[in-house]
């Protein structure tokens, strides 16, 4: 019987080895280990054995069963793996076909620039303020030291609605409004941006509507060197660490002293080129120390408080930073233009 | 202001500094130099020649054959100018000369005859035609007799000059004169100043014998000086004066006019010369014009005046518009022998109105408008007299006839070294400040660190401490200011909740595939009434119009962002860019006042427009055009993201597709709308199907709660059940959904629609809508029978309300 069992084992193992698929394997399993299988049949004949022989043959039979079972399992695993491989091979796709399109939008270039500047100043402790686009003559002009008949009013050709109401020509009225709100009692550290309007004929460098962003810092003992320090920090973060700034005198009715800030030209590194018209410098913004009349009108005692203000045009910055050469492009919304700057 | 450096060198030594370096220094310390103009880049080999003979070219009628003595040699030159003649002294470009425009002069043969150079016009030498004297425009330039043959033309005609173009800010009216510029440059370079004198030898006669002066309005005209010069000879000005005038952008005319212009540019003081004889009365009366009074000005135009305008009269009739332009009837001409020279101070207000009404803006009026130096008025008159005597042979009569109420006092500004340093963040010493004041040539008194500064009247812009702060700082040099950061603890900055929300909304929209745009706030008459959201329309808004628009296209402040946004779409469509998904966040301007008395309400809105293909170029799925459900989905997603519960209500709005439009409701209140643009409008602006949304962000902000309420993440399992109803086709899916929600509450926490079917296998007039229901209880696992009971309840209710039945 022992021989019978061993022959059965080798026969089974041979068949398992030869099996080519899981179905065959299952058939082998049934044929040997099933209720009517060969091994079962052999074991049924155990009753004929002597009491002494039984444990010996039983042990052999168990070994044979284990051996066949193990071989079946191993083979099954192997075949399963093979089957999976075959299936995966069949599932192969043409990865050169295009992916399913995802619609991605993006911000307007001016928004990107404004938010970048806002974030920069928020990081320096400024708050963001807002104000109306239809302004009173008072806030747009008078409160900023531009009384009726002031020659500098001509610098800003204004869209009037009535004698008293107009489209703001700059974002500066927000400064006056904020100071008034703070009643001359606490420091002001604000930045504001928005649309402004001037009576200009639209062309490559003029637009009747454009944007401004400006800041105001009023506190006790604010120095002009602080303005220089803040502007330097701003310019380096906005335009690159290697940029230098310079201030040169200018004139704005609401600041005294007034300056314009230039940054060293990126193209020629200050040596002079066509971009900077040979000067090595590029004008970026206007700034100055808040005029005492402006402080006083807003309820801040100019003997106690001082401050600085600065303002710039995001369009100009976009033109300098990204080479946009026609201001109208910001407002015609050509999709090719808009998409170009979504990662700006 | 054009500043000739050769002219400037008369008053201040600028040493070896190049025009570029000087421009840079001036720019850095106060006045922006916009450009540098060289009259001629090169003008070597151009000399004075004497035309010894001039005959017709044997083979060409229009050419002249000239023998010209140029000193070292004689040259045969062919000249085409009609005015060339024997005996003239002319500018000769010898072979080898290079004229402006890189025009090289060579020996040539013209119709068989040799020509060894060129006789030049001023334009050929580099002078702009508009500044060339009228009689020299159409031919060669002829020198006055006194110039020497062979002399270099470069210096004679000031061709080696460099002209700085100043971009002056309104405060620096002082730099509208060569003397003012000289003060500035002397301060910057720390050089001495060499000012002209006004010494003049006067005749025995007294001007008072000839003239009387009366001024009616001393506010507008606090000083009027009338000088009388007799026995004048009208002729061309000396060469140097013509040269300077041309460099400064003024065309030379004759000696009298040129001298008034020269002094205008030199002193910044406008002057006017009347022909004394043509004035007829010997009287000067300055008064306001009478209503409808007429004056023919120098440009031969008749001006109708009013009481707003100040005029100079001869006692009866106007003879000049004060400070703006003279009258034709008293103009100096070639026969003039006696001149009444006016040097006056007209207040800015006196001139501004006249300029505005007549549109006459001139070098003179500009200076009066910006304010002239009261201490220079009389001196400028004397300077002109001196020059008239010298260059027009005139006899200057004793004593100017004056009306004089002019305030010539200097403003006093007190300052202190510590205060200056405190404001600037510097450590400038009092000695340094003294040095700066001396460079500026400001008078002052010093007591250790305290200063009393007498601001010179030429600097009308200086009146308070901060003005002096600027003077000290700019001469000290902004480059020398340290970089500091504001002292004191800095508080943290942050966006407000609303500002953050606005950015979040933008990010959401951009993530959803929309592109941000910015359009114009000003729109036209046609667009102003279009696509206004119902909640705005309800306020009966009156369009806010500009008083004086620049164009019809930008006349009204918009009441909706959509029309301009559609304009952007059409712009792209016209360029074959048809797949667009745009949004804009901006303001509209709402007022119900017909005549505006207060600021309109500025309403922040979110508007969007999508058109064309949404899913493009699919190879594995269907191409998808934009549709109503796309914009609805974007809006639902937005309000979901904001956790603001809104509802959509079918509505027919004007300008919209009547069957594909809905209002957005928040607590029963309209806060915007979505839908398809009316096909007629689409056609009108050449758009394909276009879907819009428009949301009142002010309402959104008001409804938004910054910190979302905490809600427990459910611990117990949820169970999904699906059901499809057969419904009449008019029944709206949302209505059924609402009934399911109501009937299933609180166990049903979510109801979705996953299929809508109509067509084959469906009875006529019926459709099937499949809903997915999600059951969940916050505190326990729901049992099957609890769900079954609720589910049956829902079916019963829907069947009853909508005449529906369950699709099996
Ligand atoms: Zn450069």
From TrEMBL, chain A:
Coiled coil (UniProt feature): 61-94
Gene Ontology process terms (BP): phenylalanyl-tRNA aminoacylation
Protein's gene: pheS
Start and end residues of each Aminoacyl-transfer RNA synthetases class-II family profile domain: 109-340
Keywords of the record: Aminoacyl-tRNA synthetase, ATP-binding, Coiled coil, Cytoplasm, Ligase, Magnesium, Metal-binding, Nucleotide-binding, Protein biosynthesis
Enzyme class of the recorded protein, top EC level: ligase
Record flagged with keyword Repeat: no
Binding site for Mg(2+): 256
Cofactor(s), names only, from the UniProt record: Mg(2+)
Compartments, record wording: Cytoplasm
Stored InterPro entries: aa-tRNA-synth_II (IPR006195), aa-tRNA-synth_II/BPL/LPL (IPR045864), Phe-tRNA-synth_IIc_asu (IPR004529), Phe-tRNA_ligase_II_N (IPR004188), Phe_tRNA_ligase_alpha1_bac (IPR022911), Phenylalanyl-tRNA_Synthase (IPR002319), tRNA-bd_arm (IPR010978)
Species this chain originates from: Virgibacillus indicus
Family, per entry: Belongs to the class-II aminoacyl-tRNA synthetase family. Phe-tRNA synthetase alpha subunit type 1 subfamily.
Record's protein name: Phenylalanine--tRNA ligase alpha subunit
TrEMBL record, chain B:
Localization annotation: Cytoplasm
The EC number(s) this enzyme carries: 6.1.1.20
Cofactor detail note: Binds 2 magnesium ions per tetramer.
Record-listed Mg(2+) binding positions: 461, 467, 470-471
Domain FDX-ACB: 714-807
Annotated organism of origin: Virgibacillus indicus
Keyword set includes Iron-sulfur: no
Catalyses which reaction(s): tRNA(Phe) + L-phenylalanine + ATP = L-phenylalanyl-tRNA(Phe) + AMP + diphosphate + H(+)
Domain of life the protein comes from: Bacteria
Listed name of the protein: Phenylalanine--tRNA ligase beta subunit
Keywords from the named record: Aminoacyl-tRNA synthetase, ATP-binding, Cytoplasm, Ligase, Magnesium, Metal-binding, Nucleotide-binding, Protein biosynthesis, RNA-binding, tRNA-binding
